[in-house]
Every structure is written in structure tokens, then in C-alpha cells.
């Protein structure tokens, strides 16, 4: 397996371009199932998860042509309604094909998904929502099966905001008969991006980005050209890395409106931030001030930035509390940071107390999930000595050419094959 080697202690300087958002691209690509024709996507990041969803669509019969961060999907060729375990086990986002398949074909069979080991993330709300739309659901031998002659619009209330649940049911409802109302819906920018794309295809969706989304069903959707929004988590990762190293980095091709929670917390650490229309300049200042965070659904502080922020807090002045309220088991990276000299104690499984130290020390560490990988890269950038990160296939799921981008900013980082 590949490893990433980092010799720490260098400040980051220069410019970096942000890639398309993985978490926006996956539901958008899944939405091509709804179209009996071609859907063209641009600004598609070159990531393992994108390859996984493409392979899944190809297994369903779709034609997928990729070049230069563009992907063309021809959904008219789909001739199969079963998403098999060997393809779905690679990532949890594979569940996003369930809603589109049953909406268009009246029948779907999807393996229960796999992915990062950061909590159960059950699909109960996906299934109860589809049942509310008239689908008959069964689970047998690890597969979810959904059947409906045609879905029927209904009011669906989520017990708590769920991003993939909102996306799955919004896609399903586009072809349902009548009107569907999603209440307590997730509000993330990726939800808005999906609704905007579906509307370009001919859907009638209002309220995306608010807790109530209304979908008036149509008989079919048509071909469209879709551009993937910038990745707000990659943006936040480079912002934290610039702050942690005391660097000066211009982050280009991002959307500052999507990361208000991250910007506010970084400002509170004493980091200087200049905001432009599609770029952000981050200047790290010492000492780094300790700041408490609590992960919350959007527009709160994102759970996908918790690990990176913890890495920053390990070298902050004072003590900070990090409260993970979204997923359980999402502090696995703390054990690896302890190996590098961090002082972290965890209570109740979801609260980490971090006492800043003067310096981290390089050590061999192992990535446990996608965002934990990013936190270890940041830790390696600020540690004294040579850090070797193993199991970096996790980071390849969500960051495009991460070692190349950091190298261009002056980091001593390389991939060891």
C-alpha cells in the first residue's frame, strides 16, 4: 500500500486551487439515473469515490465517459436495478442510487452500504421516507429491495437532518405523482447544488437550503450540463493547514459563503483571513489561541472538519474542548495524534479535551478514515522530523492530488509507493 512521507516544520506559502466537491459530485452523478439520456458533469474531482460510483453506474448498464475532470453519463442504457455488494461496500454514498432507481424503474435492489468506520449512520430514514412515498421495502440477505409502480408524493418528516437521506428522497420525489414535502431537511450547500441540478433537468423543487423542501413531481427529466461546486471541506483543510504552519496561502476557486462556521472559528484562533468573491487568503499567526468547537448540522461547524481542527488545537496556547455531536467513533485519529506528542483526553466517547503543546513529534501513524487522514497530514506538516502515514487510500477517497498541492505550497511531502 502507498504511504505519505512528510518532513515537518515548513511554513506553507503560495496559491492552491480547490477541486470539485466529492460530497456534491456523488449525489449529482447518482441523479443521472433519473434521466433517459445523457447528463454531462464538469469540475468532477479525480477521486476513488468518484471511480466507485462510476463503476456502480456502469454495472447498472449506464455508459460513462470521463476526461479532463468531466464525466458524461448516458442513463438511457441502464438495464439493471441491482447495486451489488462488491461495488456498494466501498462507500456509504452508494445508497444514493436507491431513490433514483425505484423512482424511474419502479424497482431497486441495493446492498446495505459500507464506507468509513465512523459510526453506524443507519439508513432508516431513507427507507421510512420511501415507504411514505408508497414503496414496499424489504431487507433480505444484506440487500434493501424497494418496489413501487409509481411513487406518490407525501409529507416526510426527518427525526434529525440527514444529508444523504434528504438527497435520496428529493431525487425519488422528482418523479413521484403529486407533491412531496421534506421537513427538517438538511441544509448543506450540496443539497442546494443537487436541487439546482435537478431543476435544470426539469424538476420542480423549491426551498433547498431551508428546513422545508417542496418537490412537485414530473413525469420525466431531461439531459443537462452540470458543474460541480467547489469542495468546502478541502477548502477548510487547506485553511487549517496554513494556520497551523504559520503560513500565507491564497486558496482559489472556493466559495467563502459555504464555510462561514470554519472561518469564524479560525478567526477566533488569531488567524488572519481575507475573503474575496471566490478565494480566501489565510495567514497563520502565533501563538495560536485555543478555541472550543461543537460539530453541528449546516450551517454549524462541519463534522468533516473536526479532525483537522483537532490537529490545529494540539499546538494551540491553552486548552480546548471538541464536542462531536454528529457521529460516534469519530475520535480514532486522537490516538494517532497522541503518538506524535499531543495531549488529548476523551470522555463520554464524544468530547475531547486538548491541551496544546509547543511542538508535535514525528512518528509513524495510520489513517482510520478520510478526514482523520487529513488531520494526520496537518500534524505531519507541523511536527519535528519525518512522519510516515500509512493506509492513505482513505485520503484518496476525498482529496485530489493532496501531496502535489501541498508540495506546490512548499511542504516537504511525497507519496511512497
From TrEMBL:
The protein's name in its UniProt record: UDP-N-acetylglucosamine 1-carboxyvinyltransferase
Cellular location(s): Cytoplasm
GO terms of biological process kind: cell division; cell wall organization; peptidoglycan biosynthetic process; regulation of cell shape; UDP-N-acetylgalactosamine biosynthetic process
Residues that bear 2-(S-cysteinyl)pyruvic acid O-phosphothioketal: 116
Binding site for phosphoenolpyruvate: 22-23
Ligand binding (UDP-N-acetyl-alpha-D-glucosamine): 92, 304, 326
Class of the enzyme per the UniProt entry, highest EC level: transferase
EC number: 2.5.1.7
Keywords associated with the record: Cell cycle, Cell division, Cell shape, Cell wall biogenesis/degradation, Cytoplasm, Peptidoglycan synthesis, Pyruvate, Transferase
Reported function: Cell wall formation. Adds enolpyruvyl to UDP-N-acetylglucosamine.
Keyword Ribosomal protein carried by entry: no
Family: Belongs to the EPSP synthase family. MurA subfamily.
One Gene Ontology CC term in the entry: cytoplasm
Pathway: Cell wall biogenesis; peptidoglycan biosynthesis
Amino acid at each position: 500500500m502507498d504511504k505519505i512521507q512528510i518532513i515537518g516544520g515548513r511554513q506553507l506559502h503560495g496559491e492552491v486551487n480547490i477541486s470539485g466537491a466529492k460530497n456534491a459530485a456523488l449525489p449529482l452523478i447518482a441523479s443521472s439515473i433519473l434521466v433517459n439520456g445523457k447528463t454531462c458533469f464538469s469540475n468532477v474531482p479525480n477521486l476513488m469515490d468518484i471511480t466507485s460510483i462510476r463503476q456502480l453506474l456502469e454495472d447498472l448498464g449506464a455508459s460513462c465517459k470521463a476526461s479532463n475532470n468531466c464525466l458524461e453519463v448516458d442513463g438511457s442504457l441502464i438495464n439493471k436495478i441491482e447495486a451489488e455488494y462488491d461495488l456498494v461496500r466501498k462507500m456509504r454514498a452508494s445508497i444514493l442510487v436507491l431513490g433514483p432507481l425505484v423512482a424511474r424503474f419502479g424497482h431497486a435492489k441495493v446492498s446495505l452500504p459500507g464506507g468509513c468506520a465512523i459510526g453506524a449512520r443507519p439508513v432508516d430514514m431513507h427507507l421510512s421516507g420511501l415507504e411514505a412515498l408508497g414503496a414496499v421495502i424489504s431487507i433480505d440477505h444484506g440487500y434493501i429491495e424497494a418496489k413501487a409502480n409509481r411513487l406518490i408524493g407525501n409529507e416526510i418528516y426527518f427525526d434529525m437532518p440527514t444529508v444523504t437521506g434528504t438527497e435520496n428522497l428529493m431525487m425519488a420525489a422528482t418523479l413521484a405523482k403529486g407533491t412531496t414535502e421534506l421537513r427538517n431537511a438538511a441544509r448543506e450547500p450540496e443539497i442546494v447544488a443537487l436541487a439546482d441540478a435537478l431543476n435544470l433537468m426539469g424538476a420542480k423543487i423549491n426551498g433547498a437550503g431551508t428546513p422545508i423542501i417542496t418537490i412537485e413531481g414530473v413525469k420525466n427529466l431531461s439531459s443537462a450540463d452540470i458543474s460541480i461546486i467547489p469542495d468546502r471541506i478541502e477548502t477548510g483543510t487547506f485553511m487549517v493547514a496554513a494556520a497551523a504552519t504559520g503560513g500565507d496561502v491564497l486558496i482559489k476557486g472556493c466559495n467563502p459563503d459555504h464555510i462561514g462556521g470554519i472561518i469564524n472559528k479560525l478567526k477566533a484562533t488569531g488567524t488572519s483571513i481575507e475573503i474575496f468573491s471566490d478565494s480566501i487568503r489565510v495567514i497563520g499567526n502565533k501563538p495560536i489561541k485555543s478555541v472550543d468547537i461543537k460539530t453541528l448540522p449546516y450551517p454549524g461547524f462541519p463534522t468533516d472538519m473536526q479532525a483537522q481542527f483537532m490537529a490545529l488545537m494540539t499546538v494551540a496556547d491553552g486548552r480546548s474542548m471538541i464536542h462531536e455531536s454528529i457521529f460516534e467513533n469519530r475520535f480514532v485519529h486522537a490516538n494517532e495524534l497522541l503518538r506524535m506528542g499531543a495531549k488529548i483526553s476523551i470522555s463520554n466517547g464524544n468530547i475531547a479535551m486538548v491541551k496544546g503543546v509547543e511542538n508535535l513529534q514525528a512518528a509513524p501513524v495510520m489513517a482510520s478514515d478520510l478526514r482523520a487522514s487529513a488531520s494526520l497530514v496537518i500534524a505531519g506538516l507541523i511536527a519535528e522530523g519525518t512522519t510516515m502515514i500509512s493506509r492513505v487510500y482513505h485520503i484518496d477517497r476525498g482529496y485530489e492530488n493532496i501531496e502535489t498541492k501541498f508540495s506546490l505550497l512548499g511542504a516537504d511531502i511525497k507519496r511512497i509507493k
